[in-house]
Amino acid sequence: MVIENACHSHPWSEKTFSSCIGGRYFGDYAQQDNDIVGFFIGEFVVDEATLMDICVKPTMQGQGLGKQLLNQFIEQAKNKGAIKIWLEVRAKNISAQMLYINTGFVEISRRTGYYPSATGFGYEDAIVMCLEL
Protein backbone atom coordinates (compact mmCIF):
# COMPACT_ATOMS: atom_id res chain seq x y z
CA MET A 1 0.00 0.00 0.00
CA VAL A 2 2.94 2.35 0.51
CA ILE A 3 3.74 2.49 -3.22
CA GLU A 4 0.04 2.72 -4.12
CA ASN A 5 -0.40 5.68 -1.77
CA ALA A 6 2.72 7.40 -3.08
CA CYS A 7 1.74 7.00 -6.74
CA HIS A 8 -1.90 8.05 -6.79
CA SER A 9 -3.77 11.12 -5.59
CA HIS A 10 -6.76 8.82 -4.97
CA PRO A 11 -5.19 5.42 -4.13
CA TRP A 12 -7.07 2.16 -3.83
CA SER A 13 -8.25 1.17 -0.37
CA GLU A 14 -6.86 -1.94 1.29
CA LYS A 15 -10.25 -3.58 0.71
CA THR A 16 -10.11 -2.86 -3.04
CA PHE A 17 -6.51 -4.03 -3.18
CA SER A 18 -7.36 -7.27 -1.34
CA SER A 19 -10.34 -7.94 -3.62
CA CYS A 20 -7.95 -8.05 -6.60
CA ILE A 21 -6.00 -11.07 -5.38
CA GLY A 22 -6.68 -14.41 -7.02
CA GLY A 23 -9.51 -15.52 -9.25
CA ARG A 24 -9.57 -13.57 -12.49
CA TYR A 25 -6.88 -11.17 -11.21
CA PHE A 26 -3.14 -11.52 -11.67
CA GLY A 27 -0.12 -9.42 -10.85
CA ASP A 28 3.58 -9.18 -10.33
CA TYR A 29 6.14 -6.84 -8.82
CA ALA A 30 9.62 -5.44 -9.38
CA GLN A 31 12.20 -5.74 -6.65
CA GLN A 32 15.54 -4.07 -6.03
CA ASP A 33 17.79 -4.91 -3.08
CA ASN A 34 14.96 -6.95 -1.50
CA ASP A 35 12.69 -3.89 -1.65
CA ILE A 36 9.48 -3.90 -3.73
CA VAL A 37 9.75 -0.89 -6.02
CA GLY A 38 6.77 -1.41 -8.31
CA PHE A 39 3.84 -3.65 -9.17
CA PHE A 40 0.93 -4.23 -11.49
CA ILE A 41 -2.50 -5.79 -11.12
CA GLY A 42 -4.42 -7.08 -14.11
CA GLU A 43 -7.77 -8.71 -14.72
CA PHE A 44 -8.43 -11.44 -17.29
CA VAL A 45 -11.96 -12.21 -18.53
CA VAL A 46 -12.68 -14.52 -21.51
CA ASP A 47 -10.07 -13.31 -24.04
CA GLU A 48 -9.36 -9.78 -22.82
CA ALA A 49 -7.14 -8.37 -20.09
CA THR A 50 -7.37 -5.05 -18.31
CA LEU A 51 -4.48 -3.28 -16.62
CA MET A 52 -6.17 -2.32 -13.36
CA ASP A 53 -3.22 -0.68 -11.61
CA ILE A 54 0.48 -0.13 -12.21
CA CYS A 55 2.81 1.75 -9.88
CA VAL A 56 6.50 2.45 -9.55
CA LYS A 57 7.93 3.93 -6.36
CA PRO A 58 8.36 7.68 -7.09
CA THR A 59 12.10 7.62 -6.30
CA MET A 60 12.54 4.83 -8.87
CA GLN A 61 10.50 6.36 -11.70
CA GLY A 62 12.21 7.22 -14.98
CA GLN A 63 14.50 4.18 -14.87
CA GLY A 64 12.52 1.84 -17.11
CA LEU A 65 10.73 -0.09 -14.36
CA GLY A 66 7.29 0.96 -15.60
CA LYS A 67 8.15 -0.35 -19.06
CA GLN A 68 9.47 -3.59 -17.56
CA LEU A 69 6.30 -4.08 -15.50
CA LEU A 70 4.07 -3.24 -18.46
CA ASN A 71 5.90 -5.78 -20.62
CA GLN A 72 5.53 -8.42 -17.87
CA PHE A 73 1.81 -7.66 -17.72
CA ILE A 74 1.44 -7.99 -21.50
CA GLU A 75 3.35 -11.28 -21.51
CA GLN A 76 1.23 -12.73 -18.69
CA ALA A 77 -1.96 -11.56 -20.45
CA LYS A 78 -0.82 -13.27 -23.67
CA ASN A 79 -0.06 -16.47 -21.77
CA LYS A 80 -3.61 -16.43 -20.40
CA GLY A 81 -5.00 -16.14 -23.94
CA ALA A 82 -5.75 -12.42 -24.18
CA ILE A 83 -6.25 -11.02 -27.67
CA LYS A 84 -6.87 -7.45 -26.44
CA ILE A 85 -5.61 -5.44 -23.50
CA TRP A 86 -7.48 -2.44 -22.10
CA LEU A 87 -6.48 0.33 -19.73
CA GLU A 88 -7.56 3.76 -18.57
CA VAL A 89 -5.15 6.59 -17.87
CA ARG A 90 -5.65 10.12 -16.56
CA ALA A 91 -5.62 12.63 -19.40
CA LYS A 92 -3.01 14.69 -17.53
CA ASN A 93 -0.65 11.73 -17.03
CA ILE A 94 1.40 12.35 -20.17
CA SER A 95 4.38 10.19 -19.16
CA ALA A 96 2.13 7.14 -18.68
CA GLN A 97 0.35 7.86 -21.96
CA MET A 98 3.69 7.98 -23.78
CA LEU A 99 4.72 4.66 -22.22
CA TYR A 100 1.48 3.08 -23.41
CA ILE A 101 1.65 4.62 -26.91
CA ASN A 102 5.28 3.53 -27.32
CA THR A 103 4.20 0.00 -26.38
CA GLY A 104 1.52 -0.03 -29.08
CA PHE A 105 -1.63 1.05 -27.24
CA VAL A 106 -4.01 3.34 -29.10
CA GLU A 107 -6.62 5.72 -27.75
CA ILE A 108 -10.12 4.31 -28.23
CA SER A 109 -12.25 6.82 -26.34
CA ARG A 110 -12.37 9.35 -23.55
CA ARG A 111 -14.45 9.28 -20.37
CA THR A 112 -15.26 12.86 -19.48
CA GLY A 113 -14.98 13.76 -15.80
CA TYR A 114 -14.08 10.19 -14.82
CA TYR A 115 -11.38 10.77 -12.18
CA PRO A 116 -11.54 13.14 -9.20
CA SER A 117 -8.83 15.73 -9.82
CA ALA A 118 -5.55 15.45 -7.96
CA THR A 119 -6.26 18.81 -6.30
CA GLY A 120 -9.62 17.64 -5.00
CA PHE A 121 -11.52 20.25 -7.00
CA GLY A 122 -13.38 19.02 -10.05
CA TYR A 123 -12.72 16.04 -12.25
CA GLU A 124 -10.45 15.03 -15.08
CA ASP A 125 -10.92 12.82 -18.10
CA ALA A 126 -9.82 9.23 -18.50
CA ILE A 127 -8.36 8.08 -21.79
CA VAL A 128 -9.36 4.52 -22.69
CA MET A 129 -6.61 2.71 -24.57
CA CYS A 130 -6.38 -0.70 -26.21
CA LEU A 131 -3.59 -2.97 -27.44
CA GLU A 132 -4.52 -5.71 -29.90
CA LEU A 133 -2.24 -8.71 -29.55
From TrEMBL:
GO cellular component labels: cytoplasm
Catalytic residues identified in the record: 88 (proton acceptor), 100 (proton donor)
Subcellular location: Cytoplasm
Keyword Iron-sulfur: no
Binding sites annotated in the UniProt record for acetyl-CoA: 93
Family named by the database record: Belongs to the acetyltransferase family. RimI subfamily.
NCBIfam families from the UniProt entry: rimI
Name assigned to this protein: [Ribosomal protein bS18]-alanine N-acetyltransferase
Organism the protein comes from: Litorilituus sediminis
Gene name of this polypeptide: rimI
